[in-house]
Design brief:
By secondary structure, the protein is of the alpha/beta class. Helices cover 50% and strands 20% of the residues. It is flat.
């Protein structure tokens, strides 16, 4: 380990050990200032930093030898006081700081009047182990008490985590934490709050990736009970713009694909084709129309919970004329003997298509419209470039930076319309998921 690396390691340990302030340029002076102010722990930190930088800094070595017994005694005294008031976690913290101070000392190279210093190990006997066990037991018992209260699993888990912080294998803290979550999750499921129950049981995977008891089976059953089948029907196209194709069908397909890509747990998105396949299984005729007026009766027969209907009210392309900005630039060589000039033109081309659409969510069970909204999304492209006559070296960088794409056409309205339709579809899918997934 290099001297710089060693110094960094000590300062890093000291930072957490002694709640240190930032390291100053002259640690010895800062240490003496802290010492005169009565801050012996902070002073020791600075002297340790100085010796890490310069192992032969005799004044700092002398101060470490003077302060070390005092700091050790101060830490032990604090720990004892915490033990007397049964604040075992704070007592263990003091012992842990002593342990880390000992680790710093055993790695510290220092010379006392030319002789290599061997630092004595800090001995606090079994005190830290006893404090750690006592702190773990208190947290464990609080966890046991908390899990006796239904719906209090999160609090219990935090106490069990604290117990395991002192000892990862402390008693059966891990198992009891799992049991607390399991109890709360099953209670929620039994009350019919399937989503909350599943989310509670899901947290068990943080502790038991393979599941706890029959938690995985219970989650699957609860998900099936909470699952909503959402059929997205083709949007009605009110624009009558044939050049854009079957935008109503595109919209519904994109809503389904966007919804599925979000990997929802409680929502199954159903396409139009699947709906008509289910209708065919129920002997609906080809003439049977599926719209908001017939969706309730059809949905009950084919097992659909929710229908999404919508309209595309406008597709508005905007392709303004190209804009141009003209200018001249002049420059000279460093010695002034040569002059340069150029005439340039900034070109700006853009295209935009705005799509406006609305949707309604029909609940089959109640026959009511439970949600509706409208969205407007714009998709656009911009092309910018510079042309010039003359010497390019005369042109300012700010002008040349305008040359971002070159003289290329922007996407046609059919492509931009499709992009905007996808954006609207994403907004519709997000709204549906916000209602039924969250």
């Amino acid at each position: 380990m290099t001297m710089t690396m060693a110094r960094s390691a000590v300062i890093s340990l000291c930072a957490s050990l002694l709640l240190c302030t930032s390291l100053m340029a002259d640690d010895y002076k800062e240490g003496m200032k802290a010492y005169k102010d009565g801050n012996v722990i902070e002073a020791l930190q600075f002297f340790l930093g100085q010796v890490t930088e310069n192992p032969k800094h005799q004044k700092s070595v002398d101060m470490i030898k003077t302060l070390l017994p005092e700091v050790i005694e101060l830490r032990k005294s604090r720990a004892k006081k915490y033990e007397e008031t049964r604040q075992w976690d704070k007592a263990e913290g003091e012992y842990d700081r002593l342990r880390r101070l000992d680790a710093v000392l055993q790695r510290l190279t220092a010379y006392d009047n030319g002789e290599l210093v061997t630092w004595p190990e800090i001995d606090f006997g079994t005190a830290q182990v006893e404090a750690k066990n006592a702190a773990a037991e208190i947290a464990y018992q609080k966890g046991v008490e908390a899990m006796q209260i239904p719906g209090n699993a999160e609090t219990a888990i935090e106490f069990f985590k604290e117990a395991r912080k002192y000892d990862p294998d402390y008693k059966d803290a891990k198992t009891l934490g799992g049991q607390a979550l399991y109890n709360d999750g099953i209670a929620l499921i039994n009350r019919g709050d399937y989503k909350a129950g599943v989310r509670t049981l899901w947290k068990l995977r943080d502790f038991f990736p393979e599941g706890f008891q029959d938690s995985e089976d219970r989650m699957r059953d609860a998900i099936d009970s909470a699952k909503i089948k959402v059929a997205v029907m083709p949007f009605e196209d009110l624009t009558l713009r044939e050049r854009y194709g079957d935008v109503g069908m595109s919209m519904s397909s994109y809503v389904v694909s966007q919804g599925v890509s979000a990997e929802p747990v409680f929502v199954d998105f159903i396409s139009r084709d699947h709906v008509y396949a289910l209708m065919a299984e129920q002997d609906f005729g080809a003439s049977d129309r599926l719209d908001p007026s017939t969706a309730v009766s059809v949905g009950k027969l084919i097992g659909i919970d929710v229908f999404v209907f919508g309209r595309i009210s406008a597709i508005t392309p905007e392709y303004p004329r190209d804009r141009e900005e003209h200018g001249e630039s002049h420059a000279a060589s460093f010695d002034g003997t040569r002059k340069y000039s150029a005439r340039w033109t900034k070109h700006h081309r853009e295209g935009n298509v705005r799509v406006s659409a609305s949707y309604q969510v029909l609940d089959v069970m109640t026959g009511r419209i439970v949600d509706s909204d409208s969205f407007v999304r714009n998709a656009g492209e911009v092309a910018q470039w510079v042309t010039f006559i003359g010497d390019e070296s005369a042109i300012e960088a700010s002008v040349l930076a305008y040359n971002t794409t070159g003289d290329v056409p922007v996407a046609p309205s059919e492509i931009l319309a499709d992009r905007a339709i996808q954006m609207v579809s994403a907004a519709v899918a997000a709204s549906v998921l916000a209602r039924y997934e969250d």
